[in-house]
Amino acid sequence: MVPVDQVPIVFSAGVPVERRAEVRAAPHFRRWLEQAAGRFDLRRVAVRDVVFFGARVGFILIEADAWHEGRQVPGAALLRGDSVSVLVVLHCPGHAARTILTREPRLPVACPDLLALPAGMLDGGQLVSTALRELAEEVGADLTVSAAQLVELTTVWLSPGGCDEAITLYAVDLDIDPGAMAALEGRRTGNRDEHESIHVHVIALDDIPCIGRTDAKTLLSYHLYRASLSGPAARPEAVQS
């Protein structure tokens, strides 16, 4: 195998020369390169295109000449880095357990109103701090959650046939009063600098499987939470009507 610092990296003409050093140094590119070089016979990496989000290196489309056990493997990949999501389970006296979903446009799947859990990309940060930041941005800073309250459900790759992204799923149980819960419904949030337009919705936790087409993190988080010993079995009020 070729040592990682000796793997040839070439760029297409469409990637600005003055920004190629940033691409090489981007955390998600470096991580992928180190792991790929350590596990495959990685002979060459061609950076076909890069999407920059202002000063930040965003999506990186690469095509690698990679081999495993003497055979070449498919080499195209979209590198975008890892993400986190949070299943917030609200416990309000006299009500079944509720959860918080965001509704926002998702152009890649041509869906203008996708309902899903609050989530976001790491962008070089740490898992827990990113999870707390995304909750504050997408739900509101008045929803008080500490790092110690977050329970990690699992980490999974979302589309390993074409993308490097792994998502870490968290859950958190929160006690809330009726007024605070009502104040969450319908509020508009999002990071304007990232062109986010988010509507917050509070629904019954057990309605998640019935909301229609959603994403993998939302369904998986729900089922893992329901299966966990620290979930609703320990919270009798969650099953009240």
Give the CATH H-level superfamily of the largest domain.
Answer: Nucleoside Triphosphate Pyrophosphohydrolase
Radius of gyration: 21 Å
Residue windows where pLDDT falls under 50 for at least 5 positions: 231-241
Query: DSSP helix count?
Result: 5
User: How many discrete structural domains?
Assistant: 2
CATH topology (level 3) name of the largest domain: Nucleoside Triphosphate Pyrophosphohydrolase
Describe the structure.
The chain has 241 residues and is α+β, with helices and mostly antiparallel strands. The chain is 21% helix and 37% strand. It has 2 domains: 4-79, no CATH class; 83-234, Nucleoside Triphosphate Pyrophosphohydrolase (Alpha-Beta Complex), CATH 3.90.79. The chain has helices at residues 20-25, 27-39, 127-138, 178-184, 216-227; strands at residues 9-11, 41-53, 56-68, 71-73, 76-79, 83-91, 98-106, 111-116, 119-121, 151-157, 166-175, 188-189, 198-204. This is GDP-mannose pyrophosphatase.
Task: Describe the secondary structure blueprint for this structure.
Elements: E1 9-11, H1 20-25, H2 27-39, E2 41-53, E3 56-68, E4 71-73, E5 76-79, E6 83-91, E7 98-106, E8 111-116, E9 119-121, H3 127-138, E10 151-157, E11 166-175, H4 178-184, E12 188-189, E13 198-204, H5 216-227
Parallel strand pairs: 1-2, 6-11
Antiparallel strand pairs: 2-3, 3-4, 3-5, 6-7, 6-9, 7-8, 7-13, 10-11, 12-13
Supply database-style keywords.
241 residues, Nucleoside Triphosphate Pyrophosphohydrolase, 2 domains, eight-stranded mixed β-sheet, 13 strands, hydrolase
